[in-house]
Amino acid sequence: MSVDDASMVGLMGRVTGTVGPGLVGEVMVRVRGGAEAFLAYPASAKDRIDTGTVVMIVEYLAPRTVYVTAAYDG
């Protein structure tokens, strides 16, 4: 079972390694019945997203890279 672009975009995840300019971060995302780690970059090049922040995937590059933006409640 593969993960495709359409199924990844819009998913929520949690930052487990700081995402930001000059950093390759990490996010945990629930996919395929479990949680998997993906390399993460900020959707906006100047954003810094700290560990523990809930994020939304806005772009997916196979096989394990995502671009994310911080998700806000409300």
Describe it for me?
This protein is mostly beta strands. It has a single domain (5-70), classed as OB fold (Dihydrolipoamide Acetyltransferase, E2P) (Beta Barrel). 5% of the residues lie in helices and 49% in strands. It is built from 1 helix and 5 strands. It has one helix at residues 5-8; strands at 12-17, 25-31, 34-42, 54-61, 65-70. A 5-stranded mixed beta barrel has the order 1-2-3-5-4. Strand 1 (12-17) and strand 2 (25-31) form a beta hairpin. The longest helix has 4 residues, at 5-8. The mean pLDDT is 91.
The gist of it:
The chain contains one helix and five strands.
Number of helices: 1
The average pLDDT score comes to: 91
Order of helices and strands, N to C? HEEEEE
With strands numbered from the N-terminus, the spatial order across the biggest sheet is 1-2-3-5-4
What share of the residues lie within helices?
A: under 10%
| Domain count | 1
Query: Whole-number radius of gyration?
Result: 11 Å
- The H-level CATH homologous superfamily, spelled out, is Nucleic acid-binding proteins
Form type: globular
Strand element count: 5
Label the CATH architecture. Answer: Beta Barrel
Poorly predicted runs? none
Helix/strand class = mainly beta
CATH C-level: Mainly Beta
Strand content: over 45%
Q: The CATH topology, please?
A: OB fold (Dihydrolipoamide Acetyltransferase, E2P)
